[in-house]
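User: Show me a protein chain along with its predicted structure.
Assistant: Here is one chain, sequence first, then structure tokens.
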Amino acid sequence: QVQLVESGGGLVQPGGSLRLSCAASGSIFSLNLMGWYRQAPGKQRELVASISSRGFTNYRDSVKGRFTISTDNAKNTMYLQMSSLKPEDTAVYYCNGMPPLLGWGQGTQVTVSS
């Protein structure tokens, strides 16, 4: 089974930037629709951004213009570049397919606070 490992989270001030990485144990990014999800405390997990095997991207309205999703198929890695971060972006971020049929990784915590 494909394993997904997220990394790159941390504590950042409002307006700051982070780049998250999602490393897969197998070559899935060229074959599937993939996405970044997040779950804030007390809230349901939500889809943040998605990318198709052809590179078409989609974003939830609250992150449009601030987040960029990309993949490096040669490295079996997906990225989420986040800029102009806001406190409401605070959450644990996960990667998975769309729909999320792969096992969930441990996620990476992003905290936006001054």
